[in-house]
Design goal:
Helix content: 40-55%
Number of helices: 5
Number of strands: 0
Shape: flat
Structural class: mainly alpha
Oligomer: single chain
Distance between the termini: 94 Å
Largest sheet: none
Length: about 140
């Protein structure tokens, strides 16, 4: 059976072993998450949990094999593609006409703080250098 958006429709009727073979091929294909196959899979709410179960089984099967790391990366990518949300097209609603309101000029800002007296502001004094001597 081929992997394609039209083939996904038939995956609902496959046995667990046949679905596992198809999902294994799909994972090995490393298709991007926005591919038509993943979009077709996400449209079927009954198929998504079955594929998640197959992916869990593939993870358990990969444990201990020499390609375990590579297969786990592929499976993680497949799970991420499965979990992607497909954006629902939203019809643009007409916005009501907004009446323009004349903008008023802001009031001037008045500074109420008292000015600091000049005698409180003193220049910084130099910190004396400390010399340490060895005990005699």
């Amino acid at each position: 059976m081929a992997i394609g958006p039209s083939a996904v429709e038939r995956w609902l009727d496959l046995s667990t072993e046949e679905l596992r073979a198809q999902v294994t091929r799909l994972v090995s294909a490393r298709l991007p998450g926005d591919h038509a196959v993943w979009q077709a899979i996400r449209r079927h709410p009954a198929l998504v949990p079955r594929i998640r179960g197959v992916l869990s089984g593939l993870t358990a099967t990969a444990a201990g094999s020499k390609d375990e790391t590579m297969q786990k990366v592929w499976i993680a990518n497949a799970r991420a593609a499965l979990d992607q949300s497909t954006p629902v097209p939203v019809k643009a609603a007409r916005k009501p006409a907004v009446k323009e309101v004349p903008v008023e000029e802001p009031e001037p800002v008045i500074d109420l703080r008292e000015p600091e007296p000049q005698e409180l502001k003193q220049p910084h004094k130099a910190i004396p250098t400390m010399l340490f001597q060895e005990p005699s």
